[in-house]
Amino acid sequence: MNINDNCSYSQIKCVCCLFHETQIETTQATGKEESVMKREVIGCDSMDEMIANHSFNKCPFFFSSPTNTLLGSGIEQSLEQVIPFRELAGTAQQLLNQAKKSEMDNPVLFGLVPFSEGNPTRFIIPQHLYASGTPRALPGNVPAKSKALLVSSPSGEKYKQGVMDALDLFSSTELSKVVLSRAIEIEAEKEIDRSCLLKNLLKVNPRGYTFSASLNQESSMIGASPELLVAKRGAHLISNPLAGSRPRSENEVENARERQYLLNCTKELHEHQLVVEEVERVLSQHCHNLYTPMVPSVIETNSMLHLSTCLEGHAVNPQISVLQIASELHPTPAVCGFPRQSAYQAICDIEQYDRGYFTGMVGWCDARGNGEWVVTIRCAEVNKRLMKVYAGAGIVTQSRPESELHETGAKMGTILSAAGIELEDMLVA
Fold first, then answer.
1. Among 144, 182, 147, 150, which Cα is nearest to 163's?
2. Quick check: is 177 catalytic?
3. CA-based, 20 to 30 A from 287: which of 124, 233, 237, 257?
4. Catalytic residue among 76, 199, 227, 280
5. So what's the pLDDT on residue 13?
6. Active site residue 227
């Protein structure tokens, strides 16, 4: 549900219109039949059945937005290697061009990009692409409650000390904001049903972006991100940065009070504005008629309330790849901080663990530059009975260590709840 949202999610047009069902095309020059990526539009019921019977080995990539769902089956081409962010779009376009069997062909590439440039990026062009409307309206599974052991987790005191270390930097450096995260590793009593987890995330994330990307034969990065980094449809560009958060309650009176807090709190508004200004700076280099709302609104997920601003414009170069713009935005102050390089160094010094794909970006693009990329948050690496769950919080001068710790615990609750695992008491220990 969007509260006072200045950008309706319906404005992100259904990208299913970009796809048409394609059969075998014949290459006129050689008279030889060649198999091209098949694109098939299916009904929501069919997609729901495919999710329920999801084979994570055969279907390595899944991405669902508020208006459509894409499922890639088989692998036509794949690449896993370290790629400088400035080269992401060019590398992706090379793969897409190689996959084209004719000038009219328009293959789709899925991607998982890490937070740190030193880690490998994963690109996949599927053999078959299924597209449907959202299956979220269909009944979801109620996850059976599962017991789990905490395998490893930095203590709450360690995280709070990291926040205090960041606060000290604000007085002695140019740093204005830094996003500090933590991860917990748990072991469930039985194997985690990844298909069930995916369906439950779809159900509880009706206004966001649900994804699953295979990391290897046994593990996947699965999540439900509320934050759109950038989407492109034709020449239309849209970005919806989020920053400034409060845990959501089951009590609507309390939620109303928290919404007003977000809209009136100097600390939260300052944190949000740092993100919006950076996104606006990047988009203004590629857009004309860029529109940035003067004030943010509040959107909510099943576990959090967020300050939200939706920026829209038209690309000066309609042929530019959405991945080119995404790579210039990444990582935004929403997941790194400001200024970017100073915040990144502070994260390396304070966190002292590898985020991997957490706070990276995940999404898709086609050979014509269209696509959607979101920030890889509210996610976990899932491997049989093991789950590594991540969460972070933006730290600015008015931040309080205890409050930031509780915020990370609330964010972890999204995916733990969808998996039927309850660790609330341990998340802030």
1. 182
2. yes
3. 124
4. 227
5. 36
6. yes
